[in-house]
C-alpha cells in the first residue's frame, strides 16, 4: 500500500488539534523586481514550511526601500500573528542599499546596535579578507536592538524580532541557516496523496469541483503534465496530476481513493514528486 507523505514533526505537534501556524516570506531585492535575479529562496522556504506543517499564506517581493520594508513587515507580522513566522530575505550586506536590519527594527519601534557575538565573528572572518574590516562591513553586525538570534554555521545569525526572522539573500546561506534551525519551526502535520490520470483537466473539472465542495477541509490541486519549459509532457503515462492535502490522514486517504476511482487514476508515492 502506498504511504501518504506526512510532515516530519515532533510528537507534541502531531498530537495537537490547535490551528496550524501561518507564515509569510518577504523577498527584499531590487534585482528580483528588475529581472536580474531569479528568486529561489521563497520556493525553498515554502517546501521547508510544508514539511514542518506550517501554512505559508503569502510571498511578496519588495524593493530595497525603507518605507516598503517597514510597512510590509508590519502587515505580514500582524497577518501571521504571534504564533506565526515572517521570513525576510536580502538586504543585510555591507552596501548602501542593505537596510533590512534597520528597517525591521523601525517597524517595531526599535533602533539598531552592535551585536557582540556577531561583531566578534565578523572581525575574525574579515582577517581573512583583502582589505579587512571596513565601515561598510562593520554595519553587518548592527542588528535590531534587543533581538534574539538563532545560531548558524556562519558568523551571521538569524536575527529574530518578535515573529520576524531576518535572512540574507544568498540561497546557499538561507538553506544552511534554516536547515540547521529547522526544529525551531513547529507546525501541525500535513498529509499529502497524489493521483495521476490520463484524463484531461477540462474533462474532470466539474466532478473534481464536486469532490472539493464535499471536503472543505481538504485542498485538491490539479496540474497539467508538462515539462519545465511547457513544450511537452514529461511522462506519457498520465495527463493530469492531482494532489490531495489535509491534516486528517484518514480523510486524505479516503478522498484520494475516491478521486483515483472516479478518474481511472493511479495513486503514486508522494515522496517521489
Automatic annotation (TrEMBL):
Q: Which SUPFAM superfamilies match?
A: Molybdenum cofactor biosynthesis proteins
UniProt xrefs under Gene3D superfamilies: MoaB/Mog-like domain (3.40.980.10)
Question: InterPro entries, per this entry?
Answer: CinA (IPR050101), FLAD1_M (IPR056596), MoaB/Mog-like_dom_sf (IPR036425), MoaB/Mog_dom (IPR001453)
Q: Pfam families, from UniProt? A: FLAD1_M, MoCF_biosynth
All copies of domain MoaB/Mog, residue ranges: 24-193
Q: Which domain of life is it from?
A: Eukaryota
Signal peptide per UniProt = none
Q: Which PANTHER family does the UniProt record give?
A: NICOTINAMIDE-NUCLEOTIDE AMIDOHYDROLASE PNCC (PTHR13939), NMN AMIDOHYDROLASE-LIKE PROTEIN YFAY (PTHR13939:SF0)
Q: State the name under which the record lists this protein.
A: MoaB/Mog domain-containing protein
The organism encoding this protein is Phytophthora rubi
Amino acid at each position: 500500500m502506498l504511504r501518504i507523505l506526512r510532515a516530519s514533526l515532533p510528537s507534541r505537534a502531531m498530537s495537537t488539534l490547535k490551528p496550524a501556524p501561518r507564515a509569510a516570506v518577504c523577498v527584499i531585492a531590487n534585482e528580483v523586481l528588475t529581472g536580474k535575479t531569479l528568486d529561489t529562496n521563497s520556493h525553498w522556504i515554502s517546501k521547508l514550511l510544508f514539511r514542518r506543517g506550517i501554512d505559508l499564506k503569502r510571498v511578496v517581493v519588495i524593493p530595497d526601500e525603507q518605507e516598503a520594508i517597514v510597512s510590509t513587515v508590519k502587515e505580514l507580522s500582524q497577518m501571521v500573528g504571534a504564533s506565526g513566522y515572517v521570513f525576510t530575505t536580502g538586504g543585510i550586506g555591507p552596501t548602501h542599499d542593505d537596510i533590512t536590519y534597520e528597517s525591521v527594527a523601525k517597524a517595531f519601534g526599535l533602533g539598531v546596535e552592535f551585536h557582540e557575538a556577531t561583531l566578534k565573528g565578523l572581525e575574525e572572518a574579515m582577517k581573512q579578507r583583502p582589505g579587512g574590516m571596513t565601515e561598510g562591513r562593520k554595519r553587518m553586525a548592527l542588528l535590531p536592538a534587543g533581538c534574539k538570534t538563532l545560531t548558524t554555521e556562519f558568523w551571521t545569525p538569524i536575527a529574530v524580532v518578535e515573529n520576524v526572522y531576518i535572512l540574507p539573500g544568498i540561497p546557499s546561506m538561507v538553506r544552511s541557516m534554516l536547515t540547521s534551525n529547522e526544529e525551531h519551526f513547529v507546525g501541525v502535520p500535513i498529509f499529502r496523496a497524489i493521483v495521476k490520470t490520463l484524463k484531461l483537466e477540462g474533462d474532470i473539472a466539474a466532478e473534481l469541483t464536486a469532490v472539493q465542495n464535499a471536503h472543505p477541509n481538504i485542498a485538491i490541486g490539479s496540474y497539467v503534465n508538462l515539462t519545465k519549459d511547457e513544450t511537452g509532457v514529461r511522462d506519457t503515462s498520465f495527463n493530469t496530476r492531482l494532489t490531495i492535502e489535509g491534516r486528517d490522514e484518514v480523510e486524505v486517504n479516503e478522498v484520494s481513493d475516491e478521486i483515483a476511482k472516479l478518474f481511472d487514476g493511479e495513486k503514486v508515492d508522494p515522496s517521489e514528486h
